[in-house]
Amino acid sequence: MAQELQQVLAGLGLEGFRDVFDPHWEQSEATFPAGGPPFLQPQRFAEVRRYIELAPEADAALAQAALRVRQDPAFEHLAWHMHELLHRQRDYDAGQIRNAELHQLVREVDQLPDAEQQALILVIDSMVKRAKLHRIAGTSLRKRATSSARAPR
Asked: So what's the pLDDT on residue 77?
């Protein structure tokens, strides 16, 4: 049974996020599977868990989370919609990336094989951690880069 976005968000206490979830809502509802989202079924999330090499000990937590989502129609429909936005709607970005150049790079990276994406994630993660470390230490990467470029060799 189709759900109205306003009712779903109200049921989950997310009324303030309508602009984030509004795009493509009707399309997601039109494709909502009769038995509920397949990715919430134990056999499916067990397959995914193995694929991403998550330890089998996670099965109980995954089963509990999936059951919680399946028991609440609003939560289940929102989960389906988010799945559809992520996997089917290429033009959806919810305004997450505001830098146009970075946004384009993300779209290009999305076309790379998983192994290459993982390598890029590691590089980006290390840069973010480094920036946080410098922030804590009271220095910035820009200052360090500028002073390094000026330093005689």
From this structure: 95
Residue 34 resides in a domain: yes
Q: Residue 110 above 60 pLDDT?
A: yes
Tell me the residue range of the domain where 31 lies: 5-87
* Domain count within the chain: 2
- Alpha-carbon dihedral 85, 88, 92, 93, rounded to 10 degrees: 70
Same domain, 15 and 59: yes
pLDDT at 91 over 80: no
